[in-house]
Amino acid sequence: MLTTAKLALHTALRHCVTALFALSFSLAISANELPQIPAAQVNNTLYQAFYWDAYPGLWADLPAMATPLAERGITSIWLPPPAKGMSGSNSVGYDVYDFWDLGEFAQKGTTATRYGNRQQLQQALSALEQLGIDAYFDVVFNHRMGADAQELIPGFGSAWTRYYLQGRQAHYTEQNWGYLWHDFTWDWTAFTGSDNTLYPGKWWGNTYHFPYLMGEDVDYNRFEVQQEMKAWGEWIINNVGFSGFRMDAIAHVDTDFTRDWINHVQAATSEDIFFVAEAWVSDINGYLDAVNTPHLRAFDFKLRDDFVALSGGSKDMRWWGGLVNSPHRERAVTFVDNHDTSRAGNPYGMPQVINYKNQAYAYILLREHGVPTVFARDYDEFGMAPTLDKLIEARRYFAYGTGHEYSGNTEAVYAYVRGGLSDVPGTGLVMLISGRNWGTQQSFLINSQQANTVFYDYTGNVAGTVTSDAQGYANFPLNVSEGSGWSVWVPQAGSGQQPGTVTLKMTKDVGYGYSLYFTGSDNALGNWGCGIEGSWTAGNVWQLTIANPGNFNWKTRKGPSGSCGQNWESGNNHDQSNLHPEFNGGF
């Protein structure tokens, strides 16, 4: 575990390294402009923003942490459990006490949680929204911990089952929740049992995995419990501002309740809510079928087994399993490690993924199916940010179109092709990863699905370019090694302009929460109005493509993202003779 001082120093050093890398990388790709992906089509890439016993005070630090991630291509963040836990400010969140206390009430010896108070959480969620990042709540439905008093349960004996829940009393009211509200007490009747023993008159419920896990097992057969949790789910989405849920240990929870709760919360909003199950079961397809709602995804633990084999150097690269290679591939959330599989001391005795980790990330980030997860401990503590940044960016800008398995994959090398978007030039890729450390370079004749196209390795692991023939074929090289054995060959942008269009560019850092707007003498530029919002690309280059108006004048304005340009660039107007001029000054 990092101390606070060490963590601060480590984070500062990482930011310095990342900044230097970003500068060198932006210079390297200056001749290769990035494709402009329509906002609605940008790939979802998830970041797990915590690991065990890390990031106390996370809510206050989250905007600064998330800003460079958004620039790379992260679109969603999985946050640790925000609700008040039994251990108060020492709780990482999985010993949940009061679902309605998000660092707002003086309970368990503290008002704030380990990560901050309610106000800081709301500020963090607002900052993420400004960055275009969705936030997912880590919900622990299975159990409660930290009861306030013991009760005598008839036919059982004494148990810690009486919860006072001041947070619940403040937010869960008849005025707020109407028919969902029921006046009942969180006492032993709200639980099925503890210590793997049922309370009299109870049953464990319809669970897919073994029913008892820990704490006081919540009774989701109880109608009042079901209704309160539905009200809580609406509150988290519509009042607090989350966009999805990671559902902890959910296979131990009644399957019928899980289905009904997910469907209820989704129906309560027009937003497309993200639900992902943490279900450590042997048949994840069977679990998804049992829950039987199209809204639920699941973490792909079976695919991680392949990454364990890859780490050991024994993986046959021709054959891959997991949910992402099954009939439910569209519902897979892929990952390499998380806070349970990669924890100091490995308390669960999990098989580790140590070697070929960049190759594993290339596999999940660049293939067609699955929502990939980048783990904070890999990115931050283990120093993988420079290599992961390139892979995240490759997903953000190039990993589009139909996926094609290369028929010539070997036990040592795996290759995969994305065909690109027909209406977005420059998209598509050829990805190769090595599962052996031979210290050689091999080339493979692969159909890139793009004819007469020049490709370069976006990772920089292999120098030079490759040009496909009229049928799309080319020989793509790969270093067959652990240290640099992953390459992502992407189309090199043409030096000419698309017929009938022009692209205006301006290099300017406008600061957090702001965008650069292009305005000018043509209607496509707002005819000198507030302007048209540009798209940010690497190196703080803002750009906008419009139909070629011939002779025209233009300038830039600065304004809040998603609104309108307000502050004018100073100096003379630009014209069609220089589409990427120097910034005049101002703002």
From TrEMBL:
Keyword hit for Disulfide bond: no
Gene3D superfamilies: 2.40.30.140, Glycosidases, Golgi alpha-mannosidase II, Immunoglobulins
Region of interest (Disordered), residue spans: 558-587
Keywords: Carbohydrate metabolism, Glycosidase, Hydrolase, Signal
SMART domains: Aamy
Glycosyl hydrolase family 13 catalytic domain ranges (all copies): 44-395
InterPro entries: Alpha-amylase_C_pro, Alpha_amylase, Carb-bd-like_fold, GH, GH13_cat_dom, Glyco_hydro_b, Ig-like_fold
Coiled-coil spans in chain: none
EC nos: 3.2.1.1
Keyword match Coiled coil: no
Biased segments, Polar residues type: 563-579
Catalysed reaction equations from the record: Endohydrolysis of (1->4)-alpha-D-glucosidic linkages in polysaccharides containing three or more (1->4)-alpha-linked D-glucose units
The protein's enzyme class: hydrolase
Secretion signal, residue range per the UniProt entry: 1-31
Family designation: Belongs to the glycosyl hydrolase 13 family.
Name assigned to this protein: Alpha-amylase
Organism annotation: Rheinheimera muenzenbergensis
